[in-house]
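User: Can you fold this complex?
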Amino acid sequence: MRPRVAFFSFGSCEGCQLQVLSVEDVLPDLLAAVEIVNFREAIDDRRDDYEIAFVEGSLVRPEDVAELQQIRGHAKILVAIGACACLGGVNAMRNRRPVTELAREVYEGRQDGVFAALPDASPLSSVVQVNYEIRGCPIDRFEFLEAVRSLIAGTVPYTPPYAVCVECTLRGTPCLLERGVPCLGSVARAGCNAVCPAYGAPCEACRGCHDVPNFEALGEAFFRHGMTRMLATEKLELFNNYREVRDAWEKAVPSSSAT
Amino acid sequence: MGESRAVVVRHVTRIEGHGNIVVDLEGDRIKRCDLEIVESPRFFEVLLKDRPYDEAPRISCRICGICSVGHATASVLAVEAALGITPGPKLRRLRRLNMAGEWLQSHILHVCFLVAPDAFGVPSIVPMVGSHPDVVKRALRLKRLANDICCTVSGRHVMPISYHAGWMGYWPAPAELRALEEQLVGAEEDLDALVELFAGLSWPVVERRTEHLASLDDGGAYPMMGGPLHSTAGTVTAPEQYRDVLHEYLVDHSAAKHVRGPEGTIRVGALARYALAHDRLHPRATDAAARLGLRPESANPFDYVAAQVVESVQAHQEALDLVSALLADPAPEEPVPAARPQGGRGVGMVEVPRGTLVHDYTIGADGRIRSANCIIPTSQNLASIEEDMRAFLPSLVGRPAPEIAHALEMLVRSYDPCVSCSVH
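Assistant: Here's the predicted assembly.
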């Protein structure tokens, strides 16, 4: 029997769900391999008898918590898709300011009703058990397909444990850091085929850090190329604004040592 | 006093983001008629504050997956305006090509994947894979072409990579452009069939006249890369004066701000662009409009669908012309330096698939963004959507609640609202 699959989104741009629809060549095969029973962006059905839930977005609104718990209750397998769901993503950049200040700047101070927001934007794993993660902002559409294949086969979806630098080297992209561009490739998790440096933008670690990030070496490299500690800190805030990374970075390159 | 009835659609399907339709009827009287926007506030304008300007296109494109090329474009134009950078003709061509790709991608997704199921009486495109395989395969081919355009220019469609003030981080090689050209030529038949399909479909008629706005190119091209804001009321406003025309305000039932024009509600997007610039279309697109029976004076929001089909033909023709022009002179353009590196205020105004998008930044002498404001097309349409529901309701009141709900969902869907964008 085809596995029953559902898609849900919390605070996000829904770009990861769009990536799912962007596998044009094999979309009919995908629709034949799984039964989609809930996917608000694309279909009218809304059933709760799904086995696999793909969930995009961060927890942002007070009601998000209960809704996610409900999804967790229905799903045998819950897969977080994209940086917002896995890490908090760009949404978590706001966590460095109190939510009252944000409301003042954007909503004339209103925090009631539809304007209510949690103090912090957080990843799904802060509230429920997440079985698998598909990283990236956005997710890679072919990595998504691979994950679906793995789940149908009953195996574990693969995520590369090594750095984006490996992929840059493999595709022959000249090193941006060597040219003084603040690139996080050396600590960032691969799997994107290092697409950003190849198209002229530094890696911003949207897939999070790999298994053994060497922050000390990252700091040294930034200093060697004339960049400040603050610049590296800020870059990490873009997609990795959570405690483990902040602590590891502070421990490796203490703010008191700032140059 | 008539019987009291409520129509509630929680989380309208086949649109981007979360919105509810809430209608309260008492006999023939409409007590309440709201499109509640219950999407998460993400505070992007605050996220941009204090960040280096080079990050702005990459941060702001995360406002929306479907419109990310549009946001990157408005963002980079705002930064360039603030720094005194005038991009050269080849750079402008390359960016316009990417916008044409996004228009095609977004319009095809809307008309074929989200709207067409209503015309075929099915709940999604999934059953159409079996019942109308040609329609689905054609839609997938066109969507793939659109994706390939954006992948060629900016690495990917969702979250484009290569946008920088005064330059692009990647310049497509002639071989890549030739491959695109071949695909574009091969797609002409598919677009023709798309027009044929939609010319045979019919939609409800809800005539409500209101002001239509579009940001028109000074050079006479079809509106896409921005320019003065033109209105069907006859006014023309410079992009940096947009606040004279577009007034943002809060309503209790929407996390997205509403926007009001000088005369009240406004419409932006394909229907408004067609009203204001139909004489700028490529002959093939003009021909498509004639086959679809689209009139420039249309005040029916269901005509957004036909206007998007016309613009799909337009985007395809533009892409073909732009690729040819880039191939004729394929060398990358030199980066343009900032004439005003000390910064200042800059406004980027462009026409994205759903209408006029504004990014307004002030950049400090330290190269950091001091303040940011973004006005989203869907926010500009929200008040019109609600007024159109009110105009539509009298013809629906006798019907069972689920039918009323379905009809209103179709009306909301015709606007192709992008809710995540509108809340940002």
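Residues 44-423 of chain B form a domain with the Cytochrome-c3 Hydrogenase; chain B fold (CATH 1.10.645.10). Chain B touches chain A through 64 residues (CB under 8 Å).
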